[in-house]
Specification:
By secondary structure, the protein is mainly α. It contains five helices and three strands, in the order αβααβαβα. A three-stranded parallel beta sheet has the order 1-2-3, with helices on both faces. Helix 4 (71-80) links the parallel strand 2 (54-59) and strand 3. Bound molecules: guanosine-5'-triphosphate.
Length: 141
């Protein structure tokens, strides 16, 4: 599918403010699956240097008889992208996979925020230690 400059700018705008993303393709449309990797690359580019929480979803699992993308292909791509993977149906969400995908994304966003908080706390402790060391060096010289 061709994307206009406006399409890309609009996408980048959404990407900038988002804390986490669900990339959805249609299991009955190989073209939509092939758009996942470029979309993820654009996301990485926009969010750099942050490593953004992601979940990959193959939608329309109720249309298994016209499937064009195998479950294993989705699983493999998710493994490459180091993110969770679900197949679901927005029309017939019997197993609850739609809400599970959203919950997993929220958990991932919280996990990353907690990790970033820890890293920030650690770096501020390092700054305090450096300042004390500097003062001690000055006093002793
Ligand atoms: N059978 C089935 N149809 C679905 C499912 N999810 C969406 N659809 C249908 O797919 C069509 C497109 O859905 P939209 O919500 O417009 O999604 P979109 O991302 O704009 O999709 P495209 O127009 O195909 O690019 C609609 O007719 C929906 O009813 C699903 O899980 N199963």
């Amino acid at each position: 599918m061709a994307h206009s400059k406006e399409d890309i700018q609009q996408k980048e705008g959404h990407m900038r403010w988002g804390d986490g993303f669900i990339i959805v393709y249609d299991i009955t449309d190989r073209g939509s699956f092939e758009e996942v990797a470029p979309l993820r690359n654009l996301l990485e580019e926009v969010k750099k240097p942050k490593n953004v929480p992601l979940v990959l979803v193959g939608n329309k699992s109720d249309l298994d008889h016209v499937r064009q993308v195998g479950t294993e292909e989705g699983e493999r791509l998710a493994a490459e992208m180091a993110c969770a993977f679900y197949e679901c149906s927005a029309c017939a969400d019997e197993g609850g996979a739609v809400s599970e995908a959203f919950h997993e994304l929220c958990r991932e966003v919280r996990r990353r925020k907690a990790m970033q908080g820890k890293a920030r706390r650690r770096s501020s402790t390092t700054h305090v230690k450096q300042a004390i060391n500097k003062m001690l060096t000055k006093i002793s010289s």
